[in-house]
Amino acid sequence: MKTINKWMSASLVAALLLTGCTNEQPPAPSAQSATSPSSQPADAPQQPGASPAAATQAAIPAAVDKPLKIALVSEFSIGTFSAQYLQGVKEQVSKFGGELVVYNADGDLGKMAAHLDTAINQKVDGILINHGRAEALQPGVERAVKAGIPVVAFDNDLDQVEGVTVIDQDDYSLAWQGLKNLAQSIDGKGNIVYIWVGGFAPMEKRNRVYEIFLKRYPNIKEIARFGSATPNTALDTQAQMDAILKKFPNKGDIAAVWAPWDEFAKGATRAIKAAGRTEIKVFGIDLSDEDLQLIQEPNSPWKASAATDPADIGRVQSRFLYQKIAGEHTPKYFSLDPHLVSQDKLPDQPVNMSDLTQYVSGWGRSDAAISPWMAALEAKHK
Question: Which residues form the signal peptide (predicted)?
């Protein structure tokens, strides 16, 4: 596009440094550094995975060679992304012969902290944390670590607790991929609607990139902002977006919608289609089978979403936890690589998440947090 300069990622990194944000993650370690078992010598070559032959010969550590009780403490379970993430956790824990106990706080941080205390008091073998904030969870997490219960957290700010591994989807890259695509699609100018809610670690990170984006593209103007996280987020967003469309009724009033959560994108897409305003383009973050159906509908305004496989997130998080239980070193931070899934790159026939490896370069199962003994453990419980 004529108005888009070719520098992108470098300017983003520089701008992030200049913003002076605190509590930022250092660069994520490579998949290789996340997979080395403690049983290897320090100078042994690191490998992201193990061949089937090597895996079957690897001794299963005694700490994981028994049925383990794993707790998953979630802030919420809204939408299909959360459902597919949970499925990934269940799948991996089951393959390792473990028992998964799920605690859902329904968006209540106080309830989430109480669930964490319950899991600790029940002396579970390991704890997975899904979202939440350190202000509510840090005392409980510190108590778990002190009690010798390993903890791996996803999408939160618990990085101040020593011994906890925090994984995420690399929210800065997710946001920049989607926003860059939005800017290119509207030639770097036009009015946009921003659907966002604060109070969640990944949302706060994505918003930092959005603020830089507005400075990078001064001809793109935000004309409306709304958003809330509720048990019916997609429906509530649809109603709110419908009100925005009535406030800006003319073609050209709105060029695009930035929705950095797929529940927001679903609601906006449905409102735009119902109003016959499909000239408005929607760009989002996160992806599920339901989202893919909406993106592939005829005349769908949802043009692209930056995402990682939610089920794969659950599998990787679970593997890190088992590595911790086995006494292996795990990184303090780990970010899964996101991908941009564009409507124009998908085939005419409907596809689901498992099909995306054929159409999105790099999409697929992560080989992070794989130790040589894991295949043997899975085979034992097959």
Answer: 1-24
Cα radius of gyration (the chain)? 21
Token representation of residue 116: 């964490």
Average pLDDT score over residue span 319-344: 96
Q: pTM of whole model > 0.85? A: no
d(CA 279, CA 331): 45
Of 173, 91, 169, whose CA–CA distance to 130 is shortest? 169
What tens digit of pLDDT does each residue of 120-178 get?
Answer: 999 999 999 999 999 999 999 999 999 999 999 999 999 899 999 999 999 999 999 99
Q: What is the DSSP string of 138-171?
A: HHHHHHHHHTT--EEEESS--TTSTT-EEEE--H
Q: Mind giving me the DSSP string for 236-265?
A: HHHHHHHHHHHHS-STTS--EEEESSHHHH
> What is the structure's pLDDT at 168?
94
Specify whether 371 is located in the same domain as 260.
no
> For residue 179, with 0-12 CB atoms within 10 Å meaning exposed, 13-18 middle and 19 or more buried, which class applies?
buried
The verdict on 177 and 164 lying in the same domain is: no
Q: Is 320 helix (H, G, I), strand (E, B) or coil?
A: helix
Q: Residue 112 belongs to what domain range?
A: 52-169+310-339+350-380
**How far, in Å, CA of 357 to CA of 344, rounded?**
15
Comparing C-alpha atoms, which of 303, 300, 221 is closest to residue 259? 303
The residue among 306, 331, 359 that closes a domain is 306
Distance CA 245, CA 271 (A): 8
Q: Is it the case that residue 39 has pLDDT exceeding 90?
A: no
